[in-house]
């Protein structure tokens, strides 16, 4: 019964982790494209809020529930599909952390621009490019981790 509960929690955490990332990307890109600072402020604030509410807790729950299931099922951490999934999840997280820091900086830049009644600095566009450059491998790794875990693809590790 504990295994089933951990599996359900793991699947829900996966949905939150994946969904928050996808929604954040769409929200930011659409708001940025509008050029409207108030829309961008709304999007940036909600993206940071969603990270605290969904991404961080699910990012903690995923390895915790996965480890619990592996222990209960007596699956060695060196099992190819499990090790591969862990590596992919780690890649997603390692790319997400600096992207999250950039999101906070961009939110502050938008707030500063609105307060000073000016346009965005050139740093904002640079940060957005970095954010996208980090977001693509993070999102791709998360998708691949889901695939590896579902089909139990063995990397031969």
Report a brief summary of the structure.
With 157 residues, the chain is mainly alpha-helical. The protein has one domain.
Provide a descriptive summary of the structure in words.
The model has no long low-confidence stretch (mean pLDDT 94). α1 packs antiparallel against α2 (37-72), α1 runs antiparallel to α4 (122-151) and α2 (37-72) packs antiparallel against α3 (80-116). This protein has one domain (2-151). Helices cover 87% and strands 0% of the residues. By secondary structure, the chain is mainly α.
List the helices and strands and how they pair.
Blueprint lengths: L1 H33 L2 H36 L7 H37 L5 H30 L6
Helix pairs in contact: 1-2, 1-4, 2-3, 3-4
Please describe the structure with a list of short key phrases separated by commas or semicolons:
mainly alpha; 0% strand; 157 residues; elongated
Give the helix tally: 4
Helix/strand structural class: mainly alpha
Largest sheet: none
Helix-strand topology string: HHHH
Span between termini:
30 Å
Overall pLDDT = 94
Shape: elongated
Radius of gyration: 18 Å
Helix content: over 70%
Give unreliable regions as ranges. none
Strands, total number: 0
């Amino acid at each position: 019964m504990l295994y089933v509960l951990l599996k359900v929690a793991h699947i829900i955490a996966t949905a939150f982790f994946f969904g928050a990332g996808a929604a954040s990307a769409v929200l930011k890109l659409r708001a940025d494209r509008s050029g409207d600072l108030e829309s961008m402020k709304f999007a940036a604030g909600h993206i940071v809020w969603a990270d605290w509410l969904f991404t961080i807790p699910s990012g903690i729950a995923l390895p915790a529930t996965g480890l619990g299931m592996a222990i209960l099922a007596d699956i060695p951490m060196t099992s190819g599909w499990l090790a591969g999934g862990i590596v992919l999840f780690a890649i997603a997280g390692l790319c997400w952390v600096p992207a999250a820091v950039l999101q906070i900086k961009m939110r502050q830049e938008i707030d500063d621009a609105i307060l000073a009644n000016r346009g965005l600095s050139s740093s904002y566009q640079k940060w957005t490019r970095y954010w996208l450059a980090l977001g693509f491998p993070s999102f791709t790794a998360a998708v691949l981790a889901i695939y590896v875990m579902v089909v139990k693809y063995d990397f031969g590790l």
